[in-house]
Each structure stands twice: as C-alpha cells, then as structure tokens.
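hiii so my PI (J.) wants the whole complex modelled not just the main chain, which honestly fair. so below is everything: two entries, each one labled with what it is. i double checked the lines twice but i was tired so who knows lol
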Amino acid sequence: KAGVTQTPRYLIKTRGQQVTLSCSPISGHRSVSWYQQTPGQGLQFLFEYFSETQRNKGNFPGRFSGRQFSNSRSEMNVSTLELGDSALYLCASTQDEWHTGELFFGEGSRLTVL
Amino acid sequence: AQTVTQSQPEMSVQEAETVTLSCTYDTSESDYYLFWYKQPPSRQMILVIRQEAYKQQNATENRFSVNFQKAAKSFSLKISDSQLGDAAMYFCAYRGVNTGNQFYFGTGTSLTVIP
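here's the output for the full assembly
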C-alpha cells in the first residue's frame, strides 16, 4: 500500500507570492491533517479535513487555507508569503473519524521564502 | 488548549546504552492518547510507541518502553540497547478523544547515538 505522498518536495518562493502544496493520503484514509514544522517550534497544527470538511483549524492566519477533494486528496495554500512561512509542511493521514491509531506522515514539502 | 513540553532539546547516548527522553503534558481531559514519533534525518516521521491513558500498564515495543505517570502528566520514553539507527528527532504527541484527529506535539528532542 502506497504511503502518504506530498508534492512538491522542495520549492523556493519570494515574499508576496502564493504556494499550493498537495497531499495524497494512504488509500482508504479519509482524514488528512497538515502541520508546519520549524526548528525550535516543533510541529504546529494547521488544519484537519475529513470527508471534504474542515473539522479543526489551528492558530494560523487566514493566509493559510486548505481543502479536500472527494478522493481524499488534499491541498493547502499559503497566500502573500512571508519570510516566516519558510518551513517543512507535513501532511498526515489516518484511517477514520474516531480511530485511535497513528498518524501516517508524508515526507513533507520544504518551502523556502526569499 | 493542550500543551506538550519536551525539556531536553538534545540528548546523547553511547551505543548499547539506555537513554530516557522526557515529556510532560497539560490537559483537563480524562481520556486521551499519547505517542512518541521518530523523525530520522531527512526522512519521514514514524510512530515509535502509543499509550492509551485509560491503560495503567506501560506500553512496550521491543527496545522502546514508556513510563506513563498519569497523575503527574508525564510520559517518558526509554530506549534500551541504543543503536546507531536510533539517532533521530523524537517528538512526544498528545491526542484527545473528543478533538478529532488534532495532535499536539512537543518541540522535539534530538538524539545522538555515539559509536
């Protein structure tokens, strides 16, 4: 079974631009979460989608948005990029709504903002 | 909101020795789940071990075990017989039972294994 796939793996943008990151969860997983990882801050929760609905949202500005498609694939978008948005963005999927199991992570998309 | 604290940014251990990574958390919930995740350099994060709060018995997975102290809100990870492949960033994580799949992570502990 294929794991969580994130694209692109690396990207460089300049301030003010926008970026879209993509995540394909493990087949059968309906919940997709996004996290921002920066040195010293650990992983900060961005949002979680389940069956195309955003269920939870972290404490990030409205420049950060996401969506989930009917096939459970998810995208996140960051508009008007700032230098502080440079980070590793991790996508994770899990099996079902109340499953108590683990998150399965992708390898991440490393965003550098110049 | 729940918070997870890892007070050891870096740790080191001699190969074949034992090391303990600390984690504390703050919550008002009575039922929840705790996890330790491992992130090797430039590789994806994987689950090391999981503990259900309602279980008094500490979880064990081969060389990895936890010391779960619910009253103290402490959840430490012990790695026995450390191997070079254990070198990684380790994250402690919390998930409530009523908060969907939102996980709260600590800031991580970077573990170095010395040959």
